[in-house]
Amino acid sequence: MYLGVDIGGTFTDLILLGDDGDLITTKALSTPGELEVGVFNAVRDAAARRGMSGEELLARVVSFGHGTTQATNAVIERDGARTGLLASRGFGDTLAIQRLMGFTAGVPVDRLGWYSKRRYPEPIVPRHLVREVRERVDHAGKILVSLEEGEVRSAVRELLAEGVQTFAVAFLWAFRNPEHERVAARIIREEAPGAYISLSSEVAPVLGEYERTATTALNSYLAPKVVSYLDAIEQMLRSRGFKGAFSILNSAGGVMPVSEASRRPVTLVTSGPTGGVMGSVHLARKLGYRNIITTDMGGTSFDVAIVVDEKPLMSTNHEAGGFHIATPMIEVRAIGAGGGSIARVVGGQLKVGPDSAGARPGPACYGRGGTLPTVTDADVVLGIIDPETFLGGKMKLDRVAAVAAIEEHVAHPLGFSVEEAAAGIRRIVDAQMADTLREVTIGRGHDPRDFVIFAYGGAGPVHCAGYGAELGVPKMVVPVTSMAHSAYGALAADLQFSTERAVLMRGGGGARQLYDGFDIEEIGRTYGELIDECLNAMRRAGVADTDVTLVRTADLRYRRQTNDLIIPMADELVSDASIADLVARFERTYEQTYGQGSGFRDAGIELTNVRVEAFGKARRPEIKPILPTNAPRSTRRSIFEPTLGRRIDCDVYNWHDLPMDFVASGPIVIEHPETSVFVAAGQIGRLDANANITIERQESGNGRN
Amino acid sequence: MAGTEQSIDPITFEVVRNKLQAITEEQAITLKSVSGSPVVTEATDFNNGLYLVDGSIVTMGPQVLFHTGTMSSVIRSINENFSENPGISEGDMFILNDPYRGAIHQPDVSIVAPVFHNGRHVAWAGSCAHQLDVGGMSFGSWAIGATEIQQEAMLLPGIKLVEGGVLRQDLWQMIMGMTRLPHMLGLDLKAMIAANNVAARRLVELMDRYGGDTVDAIMRGEIANSERQIRDLLRSLPDGVFRARDYIEHDGHQNVLYQVCVTATKKGDCLTLDLTGTSPQAPGFINCTASGMRGAAMTGLLPILAPQIRWNEGIMNAVDFVAPEGILCNASWPAPVSSGTISTAWIVQNVVVAALSRMVTCSPELSCEGQAVTKGHMMVMTLAGLDRDGAPFGTFLLDSTAGGGGAFNDHDGLDGSGDYCVPRPAIANVEANEANGPFLYLYRSFVRDTGGPGRQRGGAGTSLAIVPYGTPGLHAMMLGHGVEVPNSVGQFGGLPGACGRNFMLKDAGDPEFVAGLAGDLEEILDLNVEELGAKPGRMWLSSRDVLGYAFQGGGGYGDALKRDPEAVRADVLNGHVSVAAARSQYGVALSNDGIDHAATEVLRGEIRSRRLGGTVPARAAGSGDMRISSSRFSCDCGCDLGPTNGNWKEHARSYRVEATSYGEHIRTHVDLELYEHVCTECGSLLEAEVVRKGDAPLVTLMLDAEWSGDMPTQPYERSSANAAA
């Protein structure tokens, strides 16, 4: 059997996949401080559903995948280790200057002009714990100024006297020549045996000293907390009879064993949202959708990722807690739109978000003291969410409070009925989300109409009918695993390890071949070394070389442009022909991304990084839902249908009761203990063979219109 | 206008309005993606937006704010001059860089495109980006030494580069023939064309879906909304007169001092910015035209008065300008203007920030937006020569944006803030610059004691030094200002941030030696560098010559003696304040264990006495700055400073101080002096002023007699950014 667990701020989600393909999801309250307790509670609930004790279940589990927000939280709450940083003399302020991007990191576009609100993030290494040492390497890796061991030693001693717990070393151009960083590491080990050390040449061997330093510093900053946490979970599992493989989902969408995760805790900073993306990727592959947009709409944010040809789009430029990190990760874009987004009238105009009532006080209908109307209040007023059955009836909602909030703050000021106002709130938030989806897809050169939307998170299934239609996609999918979708991602993900090296080669310009100037031998040699590193890591995780898939990619750009594109190498052998093919594909991808005629070959091109990703195939049983064969029972409920703009009686189904061939025309509501799926008028809802719900346009069936 | 606006339901209004903003964002993404220029991709020195047929701004991006309104004047100029001949038709695009026709200076090239819906001209889309070279007498088109605009750069008056959707090869090749970097310019012009195409297509789609009239009414409604909001806000402020003055040295020919003076008069819901009092135009390239002045003034205004209002024509409608012809910031043809943005326009921005900050401080709701001047100067460094592989090389180093931010009433300025005119700044990695060009950095780091001392400290500035590497040498060109003028002035007793500095170390040694020569500005200054002044101009650098510069820190806010000693200690720990400056500027005595509170009290008392000419203060100082209540100004200690419709400086003690008393980073031009205005009873510093020799101090703040509101006190709030770990 296979387990996947995702620990969120409020709930710990678990998914159990049996050898026969049957699926159980459970939800337990997270237990801050000792999260392993919440994990075992969720395990016990799942075990009980199969008539077993938690220990009996764990003994039969061969693989336990885990997505964690632990690293993310440590960054946000700034409770990492006291970290000391060694930097090249003259460049010790790199981490504080942040290329001047620290005070705009994560700031929405419409807030950028509000200067009195600008602040640098709290430092992860305060300036007095940075020590500069005299050394200098040039762009080609040549040592200009040699490192003096004595100077390093006294810097380390000073930092230890300051109470530093972990170390980071980030020298200029160290990814070209790591010698000085390695000497520094040896001296740190001598002075502080057992201290956690991160070297920039190992954690993020890429060009760009700020991002490399930030990534390295963050790695050491997070290490003690993340390592001890992972150890605690693993120990709990082992002590209760678990003998299988325990692996952690990283931000690149693969899992890695605890030993690897402990070496690179910084690669876990977006582990949480990545789970949902990977869950979608695996389901989509089964369903035959090659291009999807994943949308996770929760209480406060709307997280979006795009998957093209079954591969999530990656990027090497991310923000975490106001800092920028350079390891390749799945690109997840978040905007402040969710069930808790607040609606208000300003100067006669209705606005929704980006501020959110969050979980506390939450929407007015939660009855926790919130009085401002939110998107969820609108859904309750419209009748799309049933106040009696929300969260399987575990939390009764206060419809009267929702009506009062919308009446006071929206309907009355606009002179609308409460229901018209609620429909307006929904229309605005759905349009905003569609605008974001459009920007994300168009911005990467894709037509959103070529994509299928996957919707999950508490509010995704409630709203995808709206934002999907607004965007004009042919189909929306609410996955059967949507209530524990991130946990499913952790369960289903392949073992993954990636390694890269900056090369910086220039080609072309003038009348030459674009790749003239690339050192093809060196490219081949570098790929060879990277592959060895990957295979070694896979061997450490117990995967045989024959079970490993290797993906070679290279980052290319037109000279002087700042946006690299990640281009896969088609051939295993590096040769003139394969490099010519790589360059040709770069040019095609560039034009596809940025528009015809945008390529500028005359400027020449640059190869900046080469990368190898290794995947150890995860073998998982197919999901085989047990579906009823009798006709579904429905009740009828009066809702205010937002697209029709009037009240109508609509059928309400229970997801668990739906048979395999279920088809119904909207408007309908399909309820589930953890969410409600809304299918609007003019749309058709179906259940597919894997028990996912799909929503399509009524007239569709022959692709785009 | 109001009638059509009301007929659209607020839901549709909000949905369409968001889509207009999304179009502008998509336009920016396209421009940035296609452009290969670091000026666009890294320094975001571009802007784009949608405009009504008459040129009124509907939307604009959050990139370099100087471009605010530029394309609007560009469109107005094209409407005026070329509507008949050659005519404005579907599929056309016009290119303009003439500063006397709407551009700010020649390198800021605009391309604007009329948008047609069902055959009707319904709007304009426009893009503008700073170009690395548009020809003229110097690389980079910074025409040091020019005496007339004809020498400076190519001059495009709004020619039809794209006609009926077709790029005109004759004009294209003419333009490419006039630049030193045709690849770069070509890429950027294509980027602007692509961005305009995207915007036009999306706007037409939007009009197809919602109806042309509806979208048009919403665009106009957006403008009306912003105008209503800015007028409401102005109405909530006291009527009065708020002034500021700033200086610029060296006109490209001689080190002469010029001044820019603004009088902001607020009456009801109108604001007038009067630039009378500004020096006559200069014979060199530091002037700016009316469009540069307006762009710079709006740059100063928007983040202070309109951070929560959407930026469009509505805001411009509430602001009137008065500026005599032929002055430094409203130059007359053919005065040279190629460095206008980084020269006079910069100073216009500084004075508007200072004057409007004084204005908002009078309102409890808005006082948090008031600020000292952020990095009040600009330095340009271009490098050109042969690259390591022998190919031609040329670049414009953009690190000089890394100065310090002005302090606010309730928090310190940003250490490393970027320029005020750039809402989302970024500088390139040292490694990226070393990879792209044949030079090596010795250091790039903060400089201690560059943030203006104050109750809230100004942000620290940075410095760097480079040496040619892997090349026989490089042609360098350096120009700027603020080396002998402390432009980053403080507010309400805060001191100015550090001056900028340009320097060279000749024949410093072999690369292995030079690379380890100095780790920061303090160390390299110890090596007896040659100071280069504000505008060294063109220089040849051998591979043994080190060239370096330092950028202004931000101004402080409030009297530095009122700063929490704990915050000063944290500044010392993090290297932004020296122990000596803690003593001399903040009156804080530090020992090994931390703050010596008793000694600090004594020190602060001594400084206050010194300010009062040796007499012991009659009152204990308060914790805040100047106050207004019952139509009287007063010091926070309670001392009366006269009626709010009078000149409070007449009630203060005023005296001249030497620049050296503010530390080693403040220098004054031979024609400048520094004045301090202090409370006669407690010795608190109320204003530190930079004045041209022989001129009277400025009356900076004067309210109309009938205003009776109170100015809030400013209790000390320790910002979290100061917290020592």
TrEMBL record, chain A:
Residues 212-496 form the Hydantoinase A/oxoprolinase domain. Coiled coil: none annotated. One of its GO terms (cellular component) is cytosol. GO terms for molecular function: 5-oxoprolinase (ATP-hydrolyzing) activity. Residues 3-191 form the Hydantoinase/oxoprolinase N-terminal domain. Residues 521-690 form the Acetophenone carboxylase-like C-terminal domain. It comes from the Bacteria. GO terms for biological process: glutathione metabolic process. InterPro entries: ACX-like_C, ATPase_NBD, Hydant_A_N, Hydantoinase_A, Oxoprolinase-like. This is Hydantoinase. It comes from Phyllobacterium sophorae. The lineage of its organism: Bacteria, Pseudomonadati, Pseudomonadota, Alphaproteobacteria, Hyphomicrobiales.
